[in-house]
Amino acid sequence: MVGGVLQIAGLLVGGIGMIGTFAVTGMPQWRVSAFIENNIIVFETIWEGLWMHCIRQANIRMQCKVYDSVLALSPDLQASRGLMCAGSVLSFLAFMVAIIGMKCTRCAQSSWQAKGYIILTAGILFILSGAVELIPVCWVANNIISDFYNPTVNVAQKRELGEALYLGWVAAFCLIAAGAIFCCFCCCCEKTRSYGYSAPTYYPTHSQHLHRKTESSYSKSQYV
Asked: Domain for residue 111, yes or no?
């Protein structure tokens, strides 16, 4: 019962992380225009993502444009595009493998030991996808913070952390947490299985000792 609850909890947390990874990959709010110094009245907001950049002006609807070329992106965003795609694929694979290995799933000709290995594979994939997602999110955030406090960078070119980065940290944490749940569940099952399969020690009871003693005395008296 407890094992089934843990598996369902891990699957739900992993599903949230997977959906969050997909959302972060497509969101344009990776780098947001910073309004500092004496810019009190804001006429324009700039969003920069992995696939497009958007401009929203006052009293005008937002306009987005897809990047004409990958070379138009900065090096960190170029690498982030590939890493986020890899993280999305890994999280989807981990989610599907976890569904296959769920305890409540009945597969023909499949043993519990094989399902344990499947659950362990899903946990490793979840942790790997979370780690892959953390790399671009932390890299972009570090560059944004470095440029923000760099006095040589023009004020108009400074950016702030967008909502996609915060969502990326949450999604990566969910993926790693789901992987940890599945891995711990698999380790606990292995310990329980090994304990259950260990041969119990046989100790003769007092009645058996007494019965053997009576038989021995009876045999000796009969011999005499």
From this structure: yes
